[in-house]
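ok trying again, last paste got cut off:
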Amino acid sequence: MIVLCHLGCLLLLLSGLGVPMALWALLLYCLRMLATTAIYHRLITHGSYRAPRLVWWVGSLVASAAGQMGPSWWKAHHQRHHSHVDTPGDPHTPLQPVAGWRGFWHAQLGWLLGPGFHPESLPADVEADPVLRLIDRLHVLPVLALAWLSWGIGGVEGLGAFCLSTTVLFHAVASVNSVAHLVGDQPFATGDASRNNGWVALITFGEGWHNLHHAFQGSVRQGITVRKGRVMLLPDPTFRFIRMLEGLGWAEGLRQPSERALRARSAS
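nice, full thing came through this time. structure:
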């Protein structure tokens, strides 16, 4: 599906991209990025906060429309990443089995084209939820539905805008696997190559503060660093979105490390 979306971007060479469809592409990007970061990642995979099941279901439905598979597949691979980070067991490290440009390619896209595409096992908690399991198995349908809606709204241009949004979103999320393990600072001692990268954080709504995430996987806020012994907050739109859910009564129990824990884990 992602390969088709890459090719679908060529439709824009025929139709061009006007302001209305560019805004449509941006809207699709923002909604699906937030669903991926706030629901797939921080809620379902790491349990950084609690939410009603309806939030899990709707969020997973929107996230699956990004063309990056369903919640079981997504959580299984991400958990394996944390269990074997930057070792041969990590499904998408840019440092193994080779580094350099080949390692970057592997982390950005190549790992999806190999035998490791299918996880060895699926997370029991997600599989126990019949709605999440159904979304996981039928993950291609939301993508096709959104493509059809985009076609209905804008014809060839609308379909091209959908493909462009989906392709850019894919590479933005993948940059956490690749760029955020190669370029950036490491304010926390994690024993791996995870890094805080401001540019990646910008395009992924806060996920680029990856070194903090590896230091405190359960933290609902990833935009935190320590400089010269001082705890400082960084921009984290996903966290702000979750706080909005909290204000609406749709999220609770937001987990964050204490300042003492942050300083204790500081690499400086």
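cool. The longest helix spans residues 140-177. The CA atoms of residues 94 and 100 lie 8 Å apart.
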